[in-house]
Amino acid sequence: MTETVTDDGTTRDTESEHPVSYPPSGDFVAQANAGSELYQAAKNDRLAFWAEQANRLHWHTPFEQVLDWSDAPVAKWFVGGELNVAYNCVDRHVVEGRGDQVAIHWEGEPGDSREITYSDLLAEVSRAANAFTDLGLVSGDRVAIYMPMVPEAIVSMLACARLGLTHSVVFAGFSSSALRSRIDDAEAKLVVTTDGQWRRGKAAPLKDSVDEAVDSAASIEHVLVVKRTDIDVQWTEGRDLWWHDTVGSASPEHEAQAFDSEHPLFILYTSGTTGKPKGIIHTSGGYLTQTAYTHHYVFDHKRGKDVYWCTADIGWVTGHSYIVYGPLANGATQVVYEGTPNSPDEHRHWNIVEKYGVTIYYTAPTLVRTFMKWGRQIPDAHDLSSIRLLGSVGEPINPEAWRWFRDVVGAGSAPIVDTWWQTETGAIMVSPLPGVTATKPGSAQTPLPGISAAIVDDDAKMLGPGGNGYLVLDEPWPSMLRGIWGDMERYKDTYWSRYATEGWYFAGDGARFDDDGDLWVLGRVDDVMNVSGHRISTSEVESALVSHPGVAEAAVVGAADETTGQGIVAFVILREGIENTGDALIAELKAQVSKEISPIAKPRQITVVPELPKTRSGKIMRRLLRDVAEGRDLGDTSTLVDPAVFDAIAKAGQK
Ligand code: WTA
User: Fold this and answer.
1) Is 261 in the pocket of ligand 1 (CB under 6 A)?
2) What is the pLDDT of residues 78-105, one digit of tens each?
3) Which ligand 1 atom sits closest to the C-alpha of 270?
4) Which of 304, 364, 398, 516 shows a CA-CA span of 20 to 30 A to 126?
5) What is the pLDDT of residues 297-343, one digit of tens each?
6) Does the Cβ of 537 fall within 6 Å of ligand 1?
7) C-alpha span between 510 and 395 (Å, rounded)
8) Which residues contact 595 (CB under 8 A, 6 or more apart)?
9) How far is the CA of 381 from the centre of ligand 1 (A)?
10) What are 165-193's pLDDT values in tens digits?
11) Inter-axis angle of helices 46-54 and 285-298, to 10 degrees?
C-alpha cells in the first residue's frame, strides 16, 4: 500500500483513494472526555489507576486492596469494599438530585412508548425487590430472566442486583430446551417472563416456552409474568403470578443493603467449543467499575447531554454491560427499543434517532451491512445530525461497512469506536478512544488504558508490529469473569491452560498488529462461529442435528457470509435405512435446530453426504468442509483416510 499524508492530516491510501486513518476533528478533541494522558496515568501505576476508576462508584464500605491475584486465575478486585450495584445505577442519581432526568426512553415495537425517569426507575426496582423478597428469595439465589426488551426486564435485573440475587438472563429467542438447560444448570428458583412478545407486528407466545421448560424443573418455585401482548396463556395456580398483581401492589420503598465487592452479580451463558454452554460468572465491584469507566471514555458520554442508544438485546453481554450497568451507573439517558429494525419498515431506527435526538449509537457490523443492503436513501431521508459518535461490536467490521457507517450515519465526521471484548471480559478491552485515536477502518487498535493485551505465537513469544497470532490478555482486569458456574476446572482449562506457564488469558481470537502497531482482530481460532455477532459453537449445532432420529453424524462449519459475517453450513450422514426425502428432510433438520437451540442457530445450508472427511486419528476436517462451503478448491487432502470422500461431498453440495 502506498500512503500519502494530506493537508487535513489524514493519511490516504493512494491506490484506493480512501484515507487509511481518520484523526478526530479539533472540535471533538476540545470536548472529549479522554486525553492521551489517560494512557500515561495507567502506565505509571495500573492499580492506582483502577482504584481511581472504582471511585466513580458509591461504596458503602471503602475497599482496602485494589487487586488480590494470589488465587489466580480467580481474581478479587477492590477487596474489602462493599457496594450495592442497583444503588449505584439508580438511587444515587435520585439522591444527587437527578430524579427527574429520563433514564430510559422506551420504544415499543407496535409504536407505544414510555418515559422512565430515575425516580420512576427507583420506585419500580424497589417494588420488584419487595415482591422478590416476598417470594422468599434471598441473597445468593438465582433468577432466570427470559424476556423481550421491555422495561420490566431491566427492572428485574436491577431488583436482583439490589437483593444480591444472581440473575441469568436467557435471550428470549432461545428455545424452551435451551432455557431449561440454563435453569437446571443454575438451579434457578424464579423465572421472570412475559405472556408474549411482539415480532414484526405479531404477538408471539413466550410464556408457553417457559411452561414447557419448567414443567418438572426441580428448582423453579415461581413464574412471574409481565403482561405485554395480552395473548392467551396457560396458568398454573400457586406457581404462576402476574407482575401487575405482585410487583404492582408492592411498596415502592426499599432500602438497599451493601454486598461484598466480589458478590456474584450474574451468570450469562455463552457458547464454547463443546456442546454445553458455559455459565460465565461476573461479580459486582470490578464489573461495575469497568463498565462505567469504559462507557464514560469509549462513548465520550456526557451525563445530562447525550442521548445514548445501544441496539443490543439484554440477552447478550452487550445488553448487560452497555444498556443496563455501564450507562445506568453513569446516569445516562438512553433509548431502549423493543423490536426489529424493519418494523414496520426499514426507517425505524432513523425515526427513533430523530424522535429522541440520539447522539451516541452503538450497534453491530451485521446490522450496518443490512442497512447498506437496504440502501442509503433510507437513512438519507432523515435528519441524523444529532449523532456525534458511533460504535461497533460483535465481530470485525469490514472497512467498507465502516466507511459507509461513518459517511451515511455519522455525516462523514462522527468517530467510530470499534470495540473488542467478550462475554468473558465483561467490558470493552480494546478500542480507539474518541478524541485521542486517529481511527482506522477495521481495526480495534489499542488496549484501553489499564488493559494489557498481547499477540503471541504458539510458543508464547510476544509479537510486535507485523505479527500475526493469538490474542491474549496478560494482566488481570476488573470486569474479568470469575469462573464458569459449577465447573471451575473447565474455567481453568478453557482460558488459562494454553499459556499456563505465563499465566495469560487465552481469548480464542486470532489477531495481528499492523506496521503502526494497531491491533486487528481476525476472528475465532476455535470451533466457535460468529453469526450476526452471536456466538454459536459448531458442536452445539452438531448435537442438535444428531438428536434427530434420522441423523447418524453431523459436521458443522461457519462459512463466510456477506451480511451475517458467518453462515452456518452443515453436512450430515443419515442413519442406515433412512430415506433422503430432500427438501422435506432438510426442513425437518432445520426445525430441529431451532427447537433445540434457537432460530438464530438454524443452518443456512444442510447437505446430506455419504461420508465425512476425517483425519487418520478420526477428527473431522472442518477446514476442508469450510473450503467446500465457501466454494474454494480443496487444498491438501493427503492426511485424509479416504480422499475420494470429497468427490462425493462436492457432488452432494452441487445438487
Ligand atoms: C468477536 C460480544 C472483532 C470476537 C461483546 C470475540 C469482535 C467474540 C469484536 C465475543 C470486534 C467482538 N472486532 N471481533 N470489535 N467484538 N468480537 O462473547 O470473536 O458475544 O471473541 O461478546 O466476538 O463474543 P461475545
Assistant:
1) no
2) 999 999 999 999 999 999 999 999 999 9
3) 18
4) 304
5) 999 999 999 999 999 999 999 999 999 999 999 999 999 999 999 99
6) no
7) 12
8) 175, 177
9) 32
10) 999 999 999 999 999 999 999 999 999 99
11) 90
Question: What pTM does this model have?
Answer: 0.92
Among protein residues, the one with the nearest Cα to ligand 1's atom 11 is: 420
Q: Please report, for residues 350, 394, 439, 493, 586, the alpha-carbon distance to residue 489 in angstroms, rounded to integers and kept in the order given.
A: 47, 27, 40, 6, 38
Are the CB atoms for 445 and 418 separated by under 8 Å?
Answer: yes
DSSP 397: P
Does any ligand 1 atom lie closer than 6 A to the CB of residue 470? no
Interval 237-258: pLDDT, tens: 999 999 999 999 999 999 999 9
β pairing state of 19-21 and 11-13: antiparallel
CA distance 73 to 69: 7
* Cα(67)–Cα(53) distance, integer angstroms: 13
Mean pLDDT of 467-479: 97
- How many other β-carbons are positioned within 10 Å of the β-carbon of residue 88? 26
Rounded distance, CA 587 to CA 549, Å? 14
Q: Cell numbers 453462515 correspond to what residue?
A: 567
* CA dist., res. 451 & res. 473, Å (int): 8
What is the rounded (10 degree) CA torsion for 585, 589, 591, 597?
Answer: 180
Closest C-alpha to ligand 1, atom 8:
422
3-state class (DSSP) for residue 391: strand
ipTM of the complex: 1.00
Give the DSSP H or E segment for 389. strand 389-393
Tell me whether residue 622 is annotated as binding.
Answer: no
Long-range contact pairs involving 457-463 (C-beta distance under 8 Å, separation at least 24): 460/499, 460/501, 460/502, 460/504, 463/513
- 3-state class (DSSP) for residue 168: strand
User: Residue 543 has what pLDDT?
Assistant: 87
User: Does 313 contact ligand 1 (Cβ within 6 A)?
Assistant: no
* pLDDT tens digit sequence for 591-634: 999 999 999 999 999 999 988 887 777 778 888 888 888 887 66
Alpha-helix residue ranges (DSSP H) falling in 405-529: 488-496
Is 76 a pocket residue for ligand 1 (Cβ < 6 Å)?
no
